[in-house]
């Protein structure tokens, strides 16, 4: 099949990581797959041979957004794919509309966020609800039981299109040397370092991590990511007198993320909202003990099949995070148990299984929606292949 994946922005993020894995997996199965981004935000995909960009920079104002949409529609009409996979709110909206105008038979949307009631996200939720109810896209993929449950109050006409495919999470291909990793990212060679990764955004709550530094002397914090909160994090560190122990290493491309994780003694994840928590699962699989926000979805995805937690779950505030890090630092047995549980998650989140599940939907879609695996409950089981 000829498949186009539609993403909103080109940057190193969780949704982009998933489409990378899906694209690689489907190409390995003989399909032709390209990913088109509505706009280029950072340079991380500039050398990707399978990536295309509608705009070279984020759109400015309504005119820029209209240019992105028209450009995407022209791109899809020219490409004439057999199927479109869309990701993120705007990717789902414009990818679906563009695919419909291009006459694409199979359109699969991915829900990367829980439904919202207010603001722009609330409006996008209502548009998405309408698109799902009338069948503008054929399948609606969710990535966890928690996420699926958030749509439990939606009409049956919407819920009958939901399929659950848990994210695949790549495992490190090689063992990385800690000393070499710290040197590569300009981190202190000695001392205890907590690491984290993700976009520097208010929802990721990295300000709580910086504040926690003031409560735990001597440890360092390294953050991989870029975003609008960078200046606020630096200002917070300056105000609290911990600037020397905060290390913002910038955006780390996917192929280097495990080298970055190898530099840490623990991983800390302070996000306020998630639908899966890919970065946290990635760190657990890499063998780092985790301190994570006490969110229902994180308790779900960071627990092994036999019920062992791969994270110490805490309140996502400075006191909770500092307490969790101090407990791991003071209790080597706890750190070792969390790390061992994390490594067990490799089998639960196999990229190969994820890609096989997407291929099942794609091949079924060629025969029409009626042939697709039927899952109609508000909390669908994980799609098995």
Going across the biggest sheet, name each strand in turn.
3-2-1-4-5-6-7
Q: Which range does the strand content fall in?
A: 15-25%
Distance between the termini: 19 Å
Low-confidence stretches: 369-379
Secondary-structure element string: EHEEHEHEHEHHEHEHEHEHEHEHEHHH
Helix content: 40-55%
Number of strands: 13
Q: How many strands, which pairing sense, and closed or not: the largest β-sheet?
A: 7 strands, parallel
Gyration radius from CA atoms, angstroms: 21 Å
Q: Outline, from the CA principal axes? A: globular
Number of helices: 15
Quick check: average pLDDT?
A: 92
Assign the structural class, choosing from mainly alpha, mainly beta, alpha/beta, alpha+beta, or little secondary structure. Answer: alpha/beta
Description:
By secondary structure, this protein is α/β, with parallel strands linked by helices. Helices cover 42% and strands 17% of the residues. It is globular, with a radius of gyration of 21 Å. α8 runs parallel beside α9.
Please outline the helices and strands.
Elements: E1 2-10, H1 14-28, E2 32-40, E3 51-55, H2 61-79, E4 83-87, H3 89-101, E5 106-110, H4 119-134, E6 139-142, H5 145-150, H6 156-159, E7 162-164, H7 178-184, E8 193-197, H8 206-213, E9 220-224, H9 230-240, E10 246-250, H10 257-261, E11 266-269, H11 278-285, E12 290-293, H12 296-301, E13 311-314, H13 318-330, H14 332-348, H15 351-365
Helix pairs in contact: 1-15, 2-3, 3-4, 8-9, 8-13, 11-14, 13-14
């Amino acid at each position: 099949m000829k498949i186009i994946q539609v993403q909103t922005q080109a940057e190193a993020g969780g949704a982009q990581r998933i489409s990378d894995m899906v694209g690689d997996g489907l190409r390995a199965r003989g399909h032709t797959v390209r990913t088109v981004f509505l706009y280029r935000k950072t340079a991380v995909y500039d050398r990707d041979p399978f990536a295309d960009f509608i705009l070279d920079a984020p759109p400015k104002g309504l005119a820029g957004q209209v240019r992105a949409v028209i450009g995407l529609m022209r791109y899809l009409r020219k490409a004439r794919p057999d199927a479109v996979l869309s990701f993120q709110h705007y990717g789902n909206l414009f990818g679906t509309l563009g695919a419909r105008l291009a006459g694409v038979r199979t359109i699969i949307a991915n829900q990367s966020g829980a439904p919202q009631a207010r603001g722009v996200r609330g409006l996008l939720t209502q548009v998405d609800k309408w698109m799902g109810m009338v069948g503008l896209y054929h399948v609606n993929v969710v990535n966890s039981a928690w996420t699926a449950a958030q749509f439990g109050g939606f009409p049956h006409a919407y819920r009958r299109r939901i399929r659950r495919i848990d994210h695949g999470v790549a495992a490190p291909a090689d063992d990385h040397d800690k000393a070499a990793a710290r040197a590569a990212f300009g981190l202190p060679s000695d001392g205890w370092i907590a690491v984290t990764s993700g976009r520097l955004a208010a929802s990721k709550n990295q300000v709580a991590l910086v504040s926690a530094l003031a409560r735990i002397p001597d440890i360092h914090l390294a953050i991989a990511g870029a975003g609008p909160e960078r200046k606020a994090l630096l200002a917070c560190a300056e105000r609290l007198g911990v600037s020397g122990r905060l290390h913002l290493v910038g955006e780390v491309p996917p192929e280097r993320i495990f080298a970055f994780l190898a530099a840490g003694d623990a991983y800390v994840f302070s996000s306020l909202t998630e639908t899966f928590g890919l970065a946290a699962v990635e760190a657990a699989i890499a063998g780092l003990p985790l301190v994570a926000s006490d969110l229902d979805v994180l308790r779900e995805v960071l627990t092994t099949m036999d019920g062992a937690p791969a994270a110490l779950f805490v309140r996502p505030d400075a006191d909770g995070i500092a307490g969790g890090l101090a407990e791991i630092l003071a209790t080597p047995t706890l750190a070792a148990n969390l790390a061992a549980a994390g490594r067990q998650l490799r089998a639960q989140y196999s990229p190969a299984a994820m890609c096989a599940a997407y291929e099942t939907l794609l091949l079924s879609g060629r025969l029409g929606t009626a042939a697709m695996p039927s899952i109609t409950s508000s909390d669908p089981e994980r799609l098995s292949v």
